[in-house]
C-alpha cells in the first residue's frame, strides 16, 4: 500500500426511536468524510487541526446562514485525534477528527447468477452449510492447522460436511 494518510471526520448522529410511547435518543458515530493528505507528520497533524477548527457538521449546515460562526470546543486527545463540540442556534453536534493510513482495500465481488440446473440442485440438496465466523489465529502451529478459517474447505473437496 502507499504511504498516503487520510483525515477521517466522524459525526455523532442521533436517531430517535419510539417504543411503547417512550422516546429513545440513540447516538452513533458515522464516517462523514475521508480526505487523502500527502506530506510529513507535521503537515498531517496541521490538516487534522484545521479540519477540527473549521469543519461544519452536516446536521448543523441546515441552520447556518452566510457569515455565521458556530461555537466550538475542540479537545486534542492523547492519541492525536480531535473531539469537537460544535453549536449553532441552540443545536449541538459532536465530531471526531483523526488521522489514519489506508492499509487494505478489498473491492466488492458478486457471485454470478445461478443457472437453472444449479437452482434445481440447490433445491434438492438444501442450503449450503453456513460460513464459519472469523476467529483470531491460535498461538501454536498445531492448533492453527486444525481450525478451518472462514471460506476454507476442509471436507476433502466434496463441499459438504
TrEMBL record:
<feature type="compositionally biased region" description="Basic and acidic residues">
    <location>
        <begin position="141"/>
        <end position="161"/>
    </location>
</feature>
<feature type="compositionally biased region" description="Pro residues">
    <location>
        <begin position="126"/>
        <end position="136"/>
    </location>
</feature>
<feature type="compositionally biased region" description="Basic and acidic residues">
    <location>
        <begin position="107"/>
        <end position="120"/>
    </location>
</feature>
<feature type="region of interest" description="Disordered">
    <location>
        <begin position="107"/>
        <end position="161"/>
    </location>
</feature>
<protein>
    <submittedName>
        <fullName>Uncharacterized protein</fullName>
    </submittedName>
</protein>
Amino acid at each position: 500500500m502507499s504511504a498516503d494518510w487520510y483525515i477521517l471526520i466522524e459525526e455523532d448522529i442521533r436517531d430517535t426511536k419510539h417504543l411503547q410511547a417512550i422516546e429513545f435518543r440513540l447516538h452513533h458515530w458515522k464516517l462523514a468524510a475521508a480526505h487523502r493528505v500527502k506530506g510529513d507528520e507535521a503537515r498531517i497533524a496541521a490538516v487534522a487541526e484545521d479540519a477540527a477548527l473549521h469543519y461544519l457538521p452536516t446536521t448543523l449546515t441546515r441552520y447556518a446562514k452566510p457569515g455565521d460562526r458556530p461555537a466550538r470546543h475542540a479537545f486534542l486527545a492523547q492519541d492525536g485525534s480531535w473531539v469537537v463540540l460544535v453549536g449553532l442556534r441552540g443545536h449541538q453536534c459532536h465530531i471526531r477528527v483523526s488521522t489514519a493510513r489506508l492499509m487494505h482495500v478489498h473491492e466488492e465481488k458478486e457471485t454470478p447468477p445461478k443457472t437453472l440446473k444449479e437452482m434445481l440442485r440447490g433445491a434438492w440438496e438444501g442450503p449450503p452449510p453456513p460460513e464459519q465466523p472469523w476467529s483470531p489465529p491460535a498461538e501454536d502451529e498445531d492448533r492453527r492447522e486444525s481450525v478451518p478459517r472462514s471460506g476454507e474447505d476442509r471436507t476433502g473437496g466434496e463441499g459438504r460436511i
